[in-house]
Inverse folding.
């Protein structure tokens, strides 16, 4: 089975994990590889000051992201950081890097959708037109529903929304994908509710370096213990690969 | 050879899933799920939802009922299950009677005690200190739910001879305080259950500071998936000796198994 951790964020240089200290991207990938993951997907670890980013930071970060992803040679499916405080630069980066094969931007926060509605609409419209998926973290169900309706061709990768709200949201919004980070911790919850989710739009993720990847992998293995091999392969990597490589078109994924 | 794994922190008769998503954890499922994850034996107290809903006037009755159910679970599950009993600081005499009764039946563990579920608030409660002194006389182990380190420290300060295991090593934003507690009180250990593994490297970091004999593997099953904590321990950079201590050796030593 090819495993993609669809919520992992390598550092461009170093990232600080409180119990481990600063680790490099090679150490990061080594620790993820212990969980059996073949590749990771996500924007790089959030650099200091990212939430107040300026254009120069975004441009440098995108350059570094592209360079590091080439160096890591297939072990990282990268995303580029965007920021609604500089919508024009974000717009330009999406247009430029989508042409260079990067298919993901993020990590969009709840506050960005609240405070910059026009800018986010502009950026997300650009992502949709360029076939770039967008990742959302900790956004409210109503915010996600509004974005999905406004941009029905945008592939939305969401995490931190809660599994019960996700069931309704994913039924309403065929362009929405759920990352399991944190959702698989409660015993028997994903196990029992997976049949209510479109399993071809559920992606395994660990949240590394912000969560413990060993814990998250053990948890998802337990929750998927009674699902078919086909569904497990889809959740653990096939869905992420299809989303990134084909823009999300279904290639045989089935409900659990 | 199969590694021995003792789950120090579990709860038979836990019925919260019935209300959340309709899953009933029977005693057989309790055993089979843990065995399926590679766990050889499980310790802990009975917890069920109605203790949250009942008022304090039912605390004594509930304490006795949960203790009775723990012993019945041992009858059903045999050596697989190591029962923990409840005590209540508002009922000192009755709690000591429960300790005496169950200790005579081979029980050596008190807890996990969960104050917020049974209507008491502080580990400095004079009733709890009196009960803990009696438990220490019998060389019993007490497992308590984590709260603020400053409050939890009141118990080992008053009863330094008590073998105390605090739950949830990393949890509740008090990790640094937990490490400090272990440094200050040599009879205090922590279990790794639920939030024990929220961050990568927690166990290595802890062992480097207080040694391998102060952390016990636990899951908090059925509230939490049992495979996750074990996978998290195995993910860490530990030696074979350290793994043996955390996964089983420390529980065996404390509980005299």
């Amino acid at each position: 089975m090819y495993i993609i951790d669809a919520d992992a964020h390598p550092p461009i240089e170093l990232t600080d994990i409180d119990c481990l200290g600063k680790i490099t991207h090679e150490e990061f990938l080594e620790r993820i590889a212990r969980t059996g993951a073949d590749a990771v997907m996500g924007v790089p670890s959030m650099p200091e000051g990212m939430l107040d980013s300026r254009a120069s930071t975004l441009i440098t970060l995108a350059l570094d992201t592209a360079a590091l992803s080439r160096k890591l040679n297939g072990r990282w499916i990268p995303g580029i950081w965007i920021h609604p405080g500089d919508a024009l630069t974000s717009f330009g980066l999406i247009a430029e890097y989508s042409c260079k094969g990067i298919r993901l931007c993020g990590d969009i926060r709840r506050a960005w959708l609240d405070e910059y509605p026009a800018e986010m609409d502009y950026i997300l419209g650009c992502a949709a037109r360029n076939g770039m998926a967008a990742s959302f973290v900790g956004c409210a169900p109503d915010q996600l529903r509004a974005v999905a309706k406004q941009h029905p061709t945008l592939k939305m990768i969401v995490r931190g929304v809660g599994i019960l709200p996700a069931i309704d949201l994913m039924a309403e919004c065929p362009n929405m994908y759920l990352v399991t980070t944190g959702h698989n911790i409660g015993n028997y919850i994903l196990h029992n509710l997976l049949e209510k989710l479109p399993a071809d739009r559920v992606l395994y993720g660990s949240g590394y370096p912000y969560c413990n990847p060993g814990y998250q992998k053990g948890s998802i293995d337990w929750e998927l213990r009674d699902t078919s091999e086909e569904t497990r392969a889809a959740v653990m990597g096939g869905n992420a690969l299809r989303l990134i490589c084909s823009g999300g078109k279904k290639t045989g994924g089935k409900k659990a | 050879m199969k590694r021995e794994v003792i789950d120090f922190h579990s709860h038979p008769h836990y019925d919260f899933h019935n209300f959340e998503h309709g899953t009933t954890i029977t005693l057989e499922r309790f055993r089979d799920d843990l065995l399926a994850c590679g766990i050889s034996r499980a310790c802990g107290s009975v917890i069920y939802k109605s203790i949250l809903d009942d008022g304090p006037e039912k605390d004594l009755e509930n304490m006795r009922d949960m203790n009775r159910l723990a012993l019945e679970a041992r009858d059903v599950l045999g050596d697989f299950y190591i029962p923990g009993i409840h005590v209540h600081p508002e009922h000192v005499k009755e709690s000591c009677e429960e300790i005496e009764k169950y200790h005579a039946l081979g029980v050596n563990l008190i807890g996990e005690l969960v104050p917020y579920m049974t209507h008491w608030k502080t580990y400095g409660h004079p009733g709890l200190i009196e009960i803990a002194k009696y438990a220490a006389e019998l060389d019993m182990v007490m497992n308590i739910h984590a709260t603020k380190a400053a409050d939890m420290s009141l118990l080992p300060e008053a009863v330094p001879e008590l073998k105390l295991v605090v739950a949830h090593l990393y949890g509740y934003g008090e990790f640094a305080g937990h490490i400090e507690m272990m440094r200050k009180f040599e009879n205090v250990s922590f279990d790794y259950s639920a939030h024990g593994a929220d961050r990568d490297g927690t166990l290595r970091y802890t062992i480097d500071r207080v040694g391998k004999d102060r952390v016990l593997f636990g899951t908090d099953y059925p509230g939490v998936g049992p495979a996750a904590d074990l996978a998290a321990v195995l993910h860490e950079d530990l030696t074979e000796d350290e793994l043996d201590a955390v996964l089983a050796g420390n529980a065996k030593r404390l509980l005299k198994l």
Notes: The two ends of chain A are 17 Å apart (CA to CA). Residues 174 and 249 of chain A are 11 Å apart (CA to CA).
